[in-house]
Design goal:
This protein is α+β, with helices and mostly antiparallel strands. It has five helices and three strands, in the order ααβααββα. 68% of the residues lie in helices and 14% in strands. A three-stranded antiparallel sheet has the order 1-3-2. The longest helix has 26 residues. The radius of gyration is 17 Å and the shape is elongated. The two termini are 25 Å apart. The relative contact order is 0.15.
């Protein structure tokens, strides 16, 4: 019986760690703003950059972080990379957060 409790604790601890990292990633104002911008449209770095008061290289950095965490999809169109929300991953984090709290 204690083994099951231990496994549940590890599972909850792991979930808490994942939720904490997720919240840290999206708590950065510019990243959250990028997610908001991409909510309804697919855009390139140059297009996203026009919505923000940031240097283009900083926008690229934030996109890289969001993509590494799985929150964004990207597709190459010629020389441009077009970004969009990975709605499936976002739904999973939302569900995880709701279940945990």
């Amino acid at each position: 019986m204690p083994q099951k409790s231990c496994c549940r604790l590890v599972n909850k601890t792991e979930k808490l760690r994942v939720i904490t990292i997720f919240l840290n990633v999206i708590s950065e104002t510019n990243r959250l703003n990028i997610l908001r911008i991409l909510r309804t449209q697919k855009l390139s770095v140059a297009e996203i950059w026009q919505f923000l008061d940031l240097p283009q290289n900083l926008v690229s950095h934030h996109l890289k972080v969001l993509k590494a965490f799985g929150l964004l999809n990207s597709e190459r169109k010629g020389k441009q990379i077009i970004y969009s929300l990975n709605k499936d991953v976002i739904k999973r984090y939302k569900a995880l957060l709701i279940k945990f709290i």
